[in-house]
Write a structure and sequence with these properties.
heterodimer, A: alpha/beta, Rossmann fold, four-stranded antiparallel beta sheet, 18% strand, B: alpha/beta, TIM Barrel, nine-stranded parallel beta sheet, globular, TrpB-like_PALP_sf (chain A), Trp_synth_b_CS (chain A)
Chain lengths: 408, 269
């Protein structure tokens, strides 16, 4: 299957299988208490996903609440500067709440509504998913608690306050490495305890089946729109797609509708942190091995004893030792290339795009843009790259200012 | 017949309730574990459940999470845990030991390698919290090949239909999680346990032990009346954590006292 001629022959919609497996990855590695809740979620989702009424409600919210379709924008000045492929930006930063995360929280909140649960919980790293969850909870009048690593609470103070204004309770997690993975552990514990009245809105394409599938399905609106917009605006399909990968929801959302398009190359950009060679990074697909964490089998960053190790990235949203299981599978079959961009390269891209295009990208998205800086000049001027600008950078201004030694 | 089945059927014949005790290997420091295991046995524990430290113990409450963190500070992992079992077996060849932990350290060890090494070390069974029957098939083959029991959890949310499937995979005993929540939680409802166990009891000949939230002799007794046995964990781990600056013998004695009082309570049924 590693022969690229076979990529269009794969029926990607057949993954995951009924047990939630993408090849050897995915699955349902949770304690017994949660199996019932996952079965319930799966049956509700499978009943609703092709239901015209459900889809219409989702589409209506996407249009009138989120503001979709998000633009596909040709970054002409940046393209000229790099002198290679034409660069289009998929503007998920223009969504309500400022990132792609809301596509998924709207979808899951609709599911929560159908289950009749009155409380939602979420884990968050950078705070974007927490804000997107708090937002839909406010709109539907649901109680909301967001688990956030104590480290992240410090470095994303703005989003913490935003969630509180929206009526959510932000719960700082002080166990383990005090980051996203620990927030996810704590959310799982909460869910096991309050499974009767609580819906767990997972923010990425990881976790136990059916989460990787349903989050992918909700986020695939990104790629469906981008495909249509590219055909409309450029008259042809793109040659390359680029997106950052933490858990990987914005990337899978962009990639999935293009998977059978043989000619479209795909690049998932992981956080190289201080450099892959230093060990201080968050790039399991580049430098990890398969293992089991948070309910699924996937590539992980771990030590020789199978203990999960601490990750590093300047971007809280990418600071996660695992990755969605579908990405692990797409790596193994060779459909997507997974590369890494270091902190300093991402920060340089943040500044560059801000000054060149007047768009301030999130530090997460800046990883994808930094890879575009390398890729575009190697391609010809008639070729097209679509990069996912998954979120806006307002939340990161304090981080960038801090690195500049400035107190805002 | 496995050491677990043999031991538990003897207890049943004698009309005794089964007492299972959980401690984390290497907690609060590595030298404390071995004397503690022996003290547990002296005070009447039937099965030792030895926690394998993991960086992300998803099903544990704060008390046992801290136990894992303390052990990890001393770099105790799965290999070190097999080593302790080997040392324990040097003087005790009777008491069954179940390793309780999470899938990833076993995955990293390698299923076949692990099953072989665990059997050689004198381990009797494995309870992997995040390996439900659907995901356990390959590992179960290896455990079976080495005569190791596969212990599974049943939960308040487990349907009878599913319990039947789990029982078919299980050997040794079944572990009923008394409440919706994490280890050491404080909302155990004896009546709810009673109702659920009545259903499960019809499905299997395996002993059913109840854990999560059993903190004192009174609760242990109330629950033991309904089941074949009880599991205590958090109350022991909490004690051990509070004695990190004490000697191994002092820790062992204190933990022994707690299980001793629980033994007395469940023997009075």
């Amino acid at each position: 299957m590693s022969n690229t001629e076979h990529f269009s022959a794969i029926d990607y919609s057949a993954f995951p299988n009924a047990e939630g497996h993408f090849g050897p990855y995915g699955g349902r590695f949770v304690s017994e208490t949660l199996i019932y809740a996952l079965d319930e979620l799966q049956s509700i989702y499978f009943n609703l996903k092709d239901d015209p009424g459900f889809q219409a409600e989702f589409d209506k919210d996407m249009a009138h609440y989120v503001g979709r379709p998000s633009p596909l924008y040709l970054a002409e000045r940046w393209t000229r500067e790099l002198g290679g492929a034409q660069i289009y930006l998929k503007r998920e930063d223009l969504n309500h709440t400022g990132a792609h995360k809301v596509n998924n929280t709207i979808g899951q909140a609709l599911l929560a509504k159908f289950t009749g649960k009155t409380r939602v919980i979420a884990e968050t790293g950078a705070g974007q998913h927490g804000v997107a969850t708090a937002t839909v909870a406010a709109r539907l009048g649901l109680k909301c608690r967001v688990y956030m690593g104590a480290e992240d609470v410090k470095r994303q103070a703005l989003n913490v306050y935003r969630m509180k204004l929206l009526g959510a309770e932000v719960f700082p997690v002080t166990s383990g490495s005090r980051t996203l993975k620990d927030a996810m552990n704590e959310a799982m514990r909460d869910w096991a305890t309050n499974v009767d009245d609580t819906f767990y809105i997972i923010g990425t394409v990881a976790g136990p089946h059916p989460y990787p599938q349903l989050v992918r399905d909700f986020q695939s609106i990104i790629g469906r729109e981008a495909r249509r917009q590219c055909l409309e605006q450029a008259g042809r399909l793109p040659d390359a797609l680029v997106a950052c990968v933490g858990g990987g929801s914005n990337a899978i959302g962009l990639f999935h509708p293009f998977l059978t398009d043989e000619s479209v190359k795909m690049y998932g950009v992981e956080a190289g942190g201080l450099g892959i060679e230093t060990g201080k990074h968050a790039a399991p697909l580049n430098k990890g091995i398969p293992g089991v964490l948070h309910g699924n089998r996937t590539y992980l960053m771990e030590d020789e004893n199978g203990q999960i190790i601490e990750t590093h990235s300047v971007s809280a949203g990418l600071d996660y030792p695992g990755v969605g299981p579908e990405h692990s599978w797409l790596k193994d079959i060779g459909r997507v290339n997974y590369v890494a961009i270091n902190d300093d390269e991402a920060l340089a891209a943040f500044r560059k795009i801000t000054k060149t295009e007047g768009i301030m990208p999130a530090l997460e998205s800046s990883h994808a843009l930094a890879y575009v800086e390398k890729l575009a000049p190697t391609m010809s001027k008639d070729q097209i790259i679509i990069a996912n600008l998954s979120g806006r950078g307002d939340k990161d201004i304090l981080t960038v200012a801090g690195l500049d030694g400035i107190t805002v | 017949m496995s050491r677990i089945s043999q031991h538990l059927s003897q207890a049943k014949t004698a009309g005794k309730k089964i007492l299972v005790a959980y401690v984390v290997n290497g907690d609060p420091y590595p030298q404390a574990t071995l004397p503690t295991l022996h003290a547990l046995v002296e005070q009447g524990v039937d099965v030792i459940e030895l926690g394998v430290p993991f960086s992300d113990p998803m099903a544990e409450g704060p008390v046992i999470q801290k136990g894992h963190e303390r052990a990890l500070e001393h770099h105790i992992s799965l290999r070190g845990t097999l080593e302790i079992v080997k040392q324990f077996r040097a003087t005790n060849n009777i008491t069954p030991i179940v390793l309780m932990g999470y899938a990833n350290p076993v995955e990293r060890f390698g299923y076949a390698e692990f099953a072989k090494a665990a059997a050689e070390a004198g381990v009797d069974g494995l309870l992997t919290v995040d390996l439900p029957p659907e995901e356990v098939v390959v590992l179960k083959g290896e455990l079976d090949a080495h005569g190791l029991d596969n212990i599974f959890l049943l939960a308040p949310t487990t349907t009878l239909e599913r319990a039947q499937k789990i029982a078919a995979y299980a050997s040794g005993f079944l572990y009923y999680v008394s409440l919706k929540g994490v280890t050491g939680a404080g909302h155990l409802d004896v009546n709810a346990v009673k109702e659920k166990l009545a259903g499960f009891g019809q499905l299997t000949d395996l002993p059913v032990c109840v854990g999560f939230g059993i903190k004192d002799p009174e609760t242990a007794k109330a629950v033991a009346v309904l089941a074949d046995g009880v599991v205590v964990g958090s109350v022991l781990v909490e004690k051990m954590g509070s004695m990190a600056d004490k000697s191994a013998n002092e820790i062992a004695a204190a933990v022994g006292d707690i299980v001793g009082s629980i033994r007395v309570a469940i023997d009075s049924i």
